[in-house]
Structure formats: structure tokens, C-alpha cells
Amino acid sequence: MTSARQFCTFYLNNLLFGVESQKIQEVVTYRELRPVPLAPPVVSGLMNLRGQVVVALELRRQLELPDRPTNMLPVCLVVRAAGGTVCLLADEVGNVVEVEEETFEPSPETLSPRLRSVILGVHKLEGQLMHVLDSDRACQVQAVSQVQASEASAAGVGRN
Known about the structure:
Layout: E1 4-12, E2 15-20, E3 24-29, E4 43-49, E5 52-58, H1 59-62, E6 75-81, E7 84-90, E8 92-100, E9 104-106, H2 113-118, E10 119-125, E11 128-133, H3 135-138, H4 141-155
Parallel strand pairs: 2-11, 5-7
Antiparallel strand pairs: 1-2, 1-8, 3-6, 4-5, 6-7, 9-10, 10-11
């Protein structure tokens, strides 16, 4: 017997991504964000979600994709992550899909360590690939910085 999993899908730069459905609290239209002084570029700002202050992270920056065109408003995927509730900004929301485990392949070794820490792998769907996002890691600004520091250390950057 195979086990099926459900994913909420979304698009970034015309690429299909998925987050496990149980991690998604809700999907909301874009709301005005308040800037956070001295925040890393991945932090787009803070939003008021029915009285709760939620940090909004730009997934395009988190995944090293080009910036979203200025005429395109993002959608907010409100995710329940290990550190609390976070809004992940995406280009467009897709459907909820159910996939079988045998369609999954882990991320290739050639992917940068930074991206491998956030993208678990892909599911082969009919006519396209769905990149599986580790929502807990995608919501950790610090985790990405630590991966960058370890890459720099491995490359010998900062050594005398």
C-alpha cells in the first residue's frame, strides 16, 4: 500500500512549488506591509493579520530567484512553522494536489547547499515537476545565513 500526501501548490517565477497542506494556515490576498529597519533582504515587512503581527518573507529572494516584476502583487501563504506563523510571498496560488511517495526524488547533489536546505526534492507530476519546500527552513532567515556562512568557510572566504 502506498502513502499519498497532499500539498498546497504555488508558483514562483513560473516554477511549481508545494508545501504540505497541514502546514498551511490560510492563503490571503496581499496586504500592506510595514518595513522592518535593518532586516535582511528576505524580510519584506510585517503585516497585520486580524490583529496578529506576522512577518512576511519574500520566497523569490529566499530561493535565489529574480525579483518579482513591480506590476505583479504577490499572494500570502500563511504557514505554521516551528518558530510561529509566517507569511511566505509567492507569485500565484495553485491547487491542492495529492501525490504518491514513489513520484518523489531528492534534490540533486549539484544544487547549492543553501537551496538543498530549503528544497527537499521534487515530485514528478504529469507534465511538470513540483519542488517540495521545507516550510520550516524556508521560514528561517537565520538558517539561510548560517548555510551561507558555512559555504563561505568551505570556500576559504574570510581566512587570512
